[in-house]
Amino acid sequence: MKSMNKSFLGASIILAVLSGCASKQAQQPELTLSGVNPANFEVSAENAKPIKLYTLKNSQGMEVCVTNFGGRIVSVMVPDKDGNMKDVVLGFDSIQDYIKYPSDFGASIGRYANRINQGRFTLDGVEYQLPQNNYGHCLHGGPKGFQYRVYKGVQKNDQEVQLTYLAKDGEEGFPGNLQCTVTMKLTDDNAIDIQYEAETDKPTIVNMTNHSYFNLDGDPTTDNSAYLLTLNADNYTPIDSTFMTTGEIATVEGTPMDFRKPTAIGANINQEFEQLKSGNGIDHNWVLNTQGDVTKVCATLESPKTGIVLDVYTNEPGIQVYCGNFLDGTLTGKKGIVYNFRAAVCLETDKYPDTPNKPEWPSALLKPGEKYDSHCIYKFSVRK
Predict the structure, then answer these.
(1) Which end of the chain is more exposed for a tag (fewer CB within 10 A), N or C?
(2) Domain span including residue 276
């Protein structure tokens, strides 16, 4: 009887321990492949659209995490040349950090991506004044642009999320109620296919883009100097000291702005060249040769270290290349990593900067009855 009591006692202890372990396991958050905790992105409040994290996965094991706060891509997990999965975009671990530290990390930018001179434009004889939030100009739709708005999110299936947002007439100074839809699909050939659509009830301007910061090493402690950049563009739009386009379209021939062949960013970005001084490095729009053909590659970025290759496709006329010149170590991102100078590259497909004030450039005008349609594809592969 004594031995039975001992056995029963021992069994009870084991059961209690196992029960405790199970309880602890149940309490452990289920993280995404990138290590993000979806619970850190869940916010719900009365009379407000809930914020959450949407996780897309394809048959190849690639994973993309998106939050409807700003329509942001939070993480992108892709395989390197050795088959190791790497997170290749900058971002934060929680929605609180996205709110606390204003940034454009991964955001769906609008109503007008890039800059508008002095925050002013005229439409049908009416002058509109927008916020001047960057060197006297309006940048990325103003300080309360779409990147700080909550989209309504619907996950259609394992590989698609649809985000919708109604920008009201007068929001950030822009005319017209603008109904926007951003659809992100993760394809089985490792591409993030982004479709932007919008309709208005009043003439307005629209120019949307994605502002992901790509670090193809999967290691934001490294800079982008070794990355090979290729741009399918013979011309670019020069800027002044306030980052505003001058109206000129200049050839890249014979300048450090020539990336028509794969070129290490570090080989060009620090050259003595007035435009690189004006941009504090590369922060310029290139005039694409692709002429709206979304089947043609407009830009390629490659990490020699990991072999990860990013090809970009678009129906837009331009691409803004920004090399993280203003990252300065003051922001700490996912997994506690500090984001230092030039830790990433942004490839923003869109209209040219300040198009509303330069009528000879491709127009950003949208009228009632018309549909805005912008398409960008980020396709990942590996060079072994």
Answers:
(1) N
(2) 38-382
